[in-house]
Amino acid sequence: MLNDSDHDHQVCRSRAVARAEERCRDEGLRLTEQRRQVLEAMLESHAPVSAYEIMDRIAEKARRPSPISVYRALDFLVAHRFAHRIESRNAFLACIDEHGHASSGPEAPLVFLLCEECGSATEAEPAELGGLLTRIAAAEGFSPSASVLEVRGLCAACRAGGHHHDHSHSHS
Ligand SMILES: [Zn+2]
Ligand SMILES: [Zn+2]
Ligand SMILES: [Zn+2]
What we know:
It contains 6 helices and 5 strands; from the N terminus they run ααααββββαβα.
């Protein structure tokens, strides 16, 4: 698994599933077996995966799902922001951040930091960016329905060259 040596990914993964369960309960959504399976398959690493990779991962442990059922589950997970679509890679990323997306209401902008070296993707919380984008759009008389920014570069682990010496404390 990519970049997952720095933290306890089992904890991170089960926390993400637990949060999805909790939010489904709160919002009256159904996390069906199929949807959960797809979410868990995505959560095997922090790199975005294609629908076919998701099918392969599920097939390692259970019956291979049909493409249509995986796409349906992905539609649900993306629509309710349990996962995000990374357009430039035609891939999907489970949401592991604690920023607590609401599944309804105006969409906050999403920012993804995509590592060109190891393929990992990190979701950033752009608190200030929402207002900025709203002003930019308003100046053009434009009404945005969704904003997703994909930033390419090198992640902290790859910049450190795979060494585990104290990575700069850059998180907010
Ligand atoms: Zn993790
Ligand atoms: Zn998210
Ligand atoms: Zn990297």
